[in-house]
Amino acid sequence: MLVTSGQLTPPQQQLLQELELCDLPAPERAPESYLARGLDTDEIRDALPALLWAGLVERRGGDLGILALTPLGAAALRAAECDELTARLSAVASFADTVSAGAAPRTAGLALRRLAEGTWTLEQAKSFVRTGETGADRS
User: Fold this and answer.
1) Which of 109, 118, 108, 123 has its CA nearest to residue 88?
2) Which of 82, 91, 138, 80 is nearest to 114 (CA)?
3) Dihedral angle over CA of 48, 54, 59, 60, nearest 10
4) What pTM was computed for the model?
């Protein structure tokens, strides 16, 4: 279901991203289409009613139909991607404070790259600069 702020859940966003590439058969009709894309069909079936209700996705054709992205769905996807990039940029800016505290350039460079790629969170990048570990590395 869409949250009240209009943000998409991860399964909703994944489905919209796939529908941006091409229309897909309904998950009930061809679950293998979703499995081949690494999507969980149960999560997609749960996410679909809210997307249909909100007008982000539409059914076309007969039987159970073909799912297609609507212009509103494309706009919602762009907004979600923009939100992710804004958060990532904010984390990179916050990380500058850690780097200015005297981190080794090589360590800081690697952490900055991973943070900017979205591979690491801000906390993981800061931990790496301080300890050489991301926190997730510890057993």
Assistant:
1) 118
2) 91
3) -160
4) 0.70
